[in-house]
Amino acid sequence: MAVVKMQKIGICGKKEYRQEMLLTLQDLAVMEMNFRDIDDIDDPYLKKTDTKNASLKYDKRAESFDRVLALLAEYAPEKKAGLSFFADKKTVTREDMDRAAEERHKYNKYAEKILDAEKAINDSKGIIQKLNNQKAALGPWESLDVPMDLKGTKKVKLLLGTFPRTISHDEVYALAAKDMPEPAAVDVNVISVSGGQTNVSVMCLRQERSLVEDNLRAGGFARVSSPVAGIPSEVILSIDRDILSEEEKIEEKKKEIGAFADQRDDFRLMSDYYRDRAERYRVLGEIPQSGNAFFLEGWVPYDKAEPLKRLLTERFGAYVEMEETKDTDDEPTILKNNAFSESVEGVLESYGLPKHKKADPTFIMSIFYVIFFGMMFSDAGYGILMFLLSFIVLKKKKSLNEGTKKMFKLFMWCGISTAFWGFMYGGFFGDAIDVVAKTFFGYTGETPILKPLWFEPLKNPMRLLVWCMLFGLIHLFFGLGIKGYEYLKEKDIKGFICDILSWYMFITGLVLMLLPSDLFSSIAGASFDFSGLKAIHTPALIITLAGLLIILFMQERGAKNWVLRVLLGAYDIYGVTGWLSDVLSYSRLLALGLATGVIANVINMMASMMGNSVPGIIIFILVFVLGHTLNFGINALGAYVHTNRLQFVEFFGKFYEGGGRPFKAFKTKHKYIEIKEEM
Fold first, then answer.
1. Distance between CA 167 and CA 437 in Å, rounded?
2. Could you say which of 52, 343, 457, 555 is the most buried, measured as most Cβ atoms within 10 Å of its Cβ?
3. Are residues 371 and 479 in the same domain?
4. Is 508 domain-assigned?
5. Same domain membership, residue 423 and residue 301
6. What is the predicted pLDDT for the residue at 527?
7. Which of 639, 610, 635 lies closest to 623, judged by CA?
8. Alpha helices, DSSP H only, in 426-501?
């Protein structure tokens, strides 16, 4: 409904209280800090303190506790409820945080123990990986019954190696015995064949070793590069024992980590405690300080400026000055709306916040947003389901962040709207009530059990199209009206008449002339009779011409040359095609509403194809649940996207500029807990 008025303030405090004052401001979260370059301050006694190392140290401490919590989640997981996938911060008192600060050294030691245990686990995993690699390398040689590093005897040489292909015993023997008299003094054993590779052992006389090895190499033979000491099968058994030992060490360390599960909440507290300290030190490094004092400046919501001044003055003896806002100041924007309208603030922020002294469209936008979403989703069953899901999340999860909370509030209101339009159109999970009654309860009536309170779009889509375009025109007129309000607020009466009232007259006159026409009757359907409106044709023509002439001669009133002004005005009149395009865009209210209903009806038809039987009931339930879940997700997303488009393109296009900067309060950046100090 409005952009919150802001107050620029300056604070001078005693240096001895700077940490406590920053802590208080951080908890209150009502002030945005402005940091000026020290070179812009004409005072040689003011300096900035280098706090980067301290801030980095506390960031690392916070990250270490995050890692500790991740390890506890892995090795000692919590039992969580069904809505645990929504972040839910625990609310604590300032005393809890102070206690954590006093006991931080104890928790730091706990964290070190847990992280040391993690290191030991990782070391053992590394050793196991290495042992498994060794075991895999020895696998092909497991049937070898002599040590791999055996050199042979005084007269006999053992050659162990591999051929990069599958090769038979006889082929290996033929290679080794080449150019040797028969019978050749060579013994060949194929140890294993796997993966296109053949592992062999060859024994020969020492004096014939060079010849045998050269023969084998000519066939692709390669000696084992690093043979292990011992018989492979025995070495593998030893490796298995070592792996088991390391796995036992890992389990022991996991239990050691799990023993700290009861400290989980304290670790969360410590993580956010250090996160707070890191943020305070970042700010501390940006504020100018002298030997005895420090200085802050920034923005505070106007209604909180005086209470903040009293608090800082009474508690810390600070001097607080209210500064006058200048036109050149980059004033941040905070929106203030009622409980219903604040739910769409996130949608508005995604497009751009309004600047100060400009209208906040949130209230009007929220009404049309919920109505249009409901018309697109348009099924009572889906609407009730969306409302219940959103309501349960909001009820169960009290500590959701503001953005998530607003999103679920928006979906809750949209669910109510969807249910409303669903009953107006006669849709409850499509035609599920009639399908169930006819398939399983023998209902034979032609009249729908759930009758539409208004009319059924599938049977009369053109009638709904007319209403959609009417709602669209009203929506666009509200957008133009907001622009007119800004003209009047600035006392620009001429601009209001030439830029706003002229278009109201022109468009309204055209619509009134169109209503009694045969063209409109053919579009709207024969059931609509506007013959009684023909009497307004002449007044409508007068209104249209009056608006057209104002646009033609006054829309471009800044041009001094009258010929140029008229030409530019004529081009502006051509902009009526843009209005036609914008109004036609609201046909998506019809298209998406029909899509939801048609798909739902098809799902019901498919689910009931096997009739009234036990398999039919089972198939019906499965197809019904799966089909409607998919339809719910797809069309809810479609309704969300296209409702946003109607706001961003059509509605905002008539008046909204945006450009506001969001208010960024100096506040706690808690990941796990919530704590707030009241003034």
1. 74
2. 457
3. yes
4. no
5. no
6. 43
7. 610
8. 432-440, 461-489, 493-495
Q: How many domains does the chain have?
A: 4
- Average pLDDT, consecutive stretches of 10 residues, N- to C-terminus, the chain (679 residues): 88 92 91 76 74 93 95 88 61 81 92 96 96 91 89 89 92 90 89 90 92 92 88 93 95 95 92 92 89 91 94 94 86 92 93 89 96 97 97 87 91 97 96 93 86 92 91 96 92 91 92 73 54 70 90 80 80 85 94 95 94 92 97 96 95 90 90 70
Torsion over CA: 486, 488, 490, 496 (sign): positive
Residue 137 near residue 224, CB atoms below 8 Å:
no
Q: Which of 82, 636, 642, 586 is nearest to 381 (CA)?
A: 636
Q: Is residue 322 part of a domain?
A: yes
Residues 220 and 248 in one domain: no
- Cβ–Cβ under 8 Å, residues 550 and 502: yes
Place of tokens 């309208």: 341
Pairing of strands 156-163, 222-223: antiparallel
> For residue 204, which of 232, 189, 185 has the smallest C-alpha distance?
185
Q: Measure Cα distances from 642 to 314, 369, 474 in Å.
A: 53, 10, 18
State the Cα–Cα distance between residues 230 and 564, nearest whole angstrom: 101
Q: What is the 3-state secondary structure (H, E, C) of 339-379?
A: CCHHHHHHHHHHHCECCCCCCCCHHHHHHHHHHHHHHHHCC
Instruction: Tell me the two tokens of residue 434.
Output: 């009639």
In angstroms, the CA 318 to CA 295 distance is 10
Q: What is the CATH number of the domain that holds 181?
A: 3.30.70.2750
DSSP 514-547: HTTSHHHHHHH-TT---GGGGGGHHHHHHHHHHH
Structure tokens at 414: 């949209």
Q: Of 476, 461, 535, which is closest to residue 508 (Cα–Cα)? A: 476
Name the residue among 80, 64, 68, 59 with its Cα closest to residue 397: 80
**Is-contact 30 343, C-beta < 8 A?**
no
Contact 301, 28 (CB under 8 A): no
What residues make up the domain containing 318? 1-48+288-334+664-679
Say how far apart CA 602 and CA 630 lie, in whole Å.
Answer: 13
390 and 313 in a common domain: no
Reference 59, options 287, 284, 280, 285; nearest CA is 280
Q: Smallest Cα–Cα separation from 556: which of 502, 483, 478? A: 502
Q: Is residue 504 part of a domain?
A: no
Place of tokens 């140290």: 57
Q: Are residues 399 and 459 in the same domain?
A: yes
Q: For 198-233, b where at least 16 C-beta lie within 10 A, e where not — what string?
A: bbbbbbbbeebbebbbebbeeeebeebeebbebbbe
- Backbone phi and psi for residue 337, each to the nearest 5 degrees, phi listed first: -140, 170
What is 303-346 written as a DSSP string?
HHHHHHHHHHHHHH--EEEEEPP-TTS--EE-EE--TTGGGGHH
- List beta partners, residue 152: 157
pLDDT for residue 521: 63
Which tokens sit at 539?
């007044």
Rounded CA gap, 380 and 629, in Å?
Answer: 14
Question: Is 610 in contact with 619 (CB distance < 8 Å)?
Answer: yes
pLDDT score, position 64: 96
3-state helix/strand/coil string of 497-511: HHHHHHHHHHHHHHH
> Is the link from the previous residue into 183 a cis peptide, with omega within 30 of 0?
yes
Q: Is residue 274 part of a domain?
A: yes
Contact indicator for 318, 13 with CB cutoff of 8 Å:
yes
CA nearest to 114, candidates 272, 269, 264: 264
Scan for tokens 């005086």, then name that residue: 306
